[in-house]
Design goal:
Shape: elongated
Oligomer: single chain
Order of helices and strands: EEEEEEEEEEEEEEEEEEEE
Distance between the termini: 56 Å
Largest sheet: 20 strands, antiparallel
Number of strands: 20
Length: 207
């Protein structure tokens, strides 16, 4: 259950709509103009801390959007232009370390992409082009050593992983940014330990 309080701002067509939880804590605070969300909007957890804040233009996301953990720490930061993601997206864990970074253009993942271990050290470094994995991708272990790499062209390519001696222990084919073709695991002597055939991300045969 929540309650609604609407207050008229100045003599313009803008108004602030505030909703409350049953315990009296604010639930949301949204600016309206001409009957549509225009301007800042803030949402809250029942403990009083912010859960999300953003901006709207004519009911459409337009500007920075920040999500928060229940504790008040930032969870994600992303930007919108006329309802489409644009620019940087950052994802954090509860300890404040970034665990994912991506760039967007006109709603598509396009540009640099990175994933990080919980302590903030680099796990994956790659890129996207029009929502497809693209270019050189590199994968690292906890100690910062590269353990796998891949080359993609608009979602198509081959992923290869190696052990500490530099021997290939896995190769996997991708198309449209998902597993498509052979995913092979190798024994220490180079022989095939397991082979799985994929079609559009789904396994269809195991050898």
């Amino acid at each position: 259950m929540f309650f609604v309080l609407i207050s008229q701002l100045f003599v313009s067509c803008s108004k602030q709509e505030v909703t409350y939880y049953a315990n009296g804590k604010k639930q949301s605070d949204i600016t309206y103009k001409h009957g549509k969300k225009n301007g800042k909007a803030v949402f809250y957890f029942e403990n009083g801390k912010k859960s999300l804040e953003t901006c709207y233009a004519n009911d459409t996301l337009n500007g920075l959007l920040i999500r928060y953990f229940f504790t008040g720490e930032t969870e994600t930061e992303e930007n919108y232009v006329h309802g489409l993601k644009e620019g940087e997206e950052k994802v954090y864990n509860e300890y404040g370390n970034m665990i994912e970074y991506a760039e967007y253009h006109q709603g598509e993942r396009h540009g640099v992409y990175k994933q990080f271990y919980p302590d903030g050290s680099l796990y994956i470094a790659g890129a996207y082009r029009h929502n497809q994995i693209h270019g050189s991708w590199h994968y690292y272990d906890f100690n910062g050593f590269e353990v796998a790499a891949a080359e993609f062209e608009d979602g198509k390519g081959v992923f290869k992983a190696y052990n500490e001696e530099g021997r290939m222990i896995r190769s996997a084919e991708y198309e449209q940014s998902v597993l498509h073709g052979a995913d092979i695991t190798y024994n220490a002597d180079g022989s095939i330990a397991k082979k799985v055939e994929y079609s559009n991300g789904k396994p269809i045969r195991v050898e």
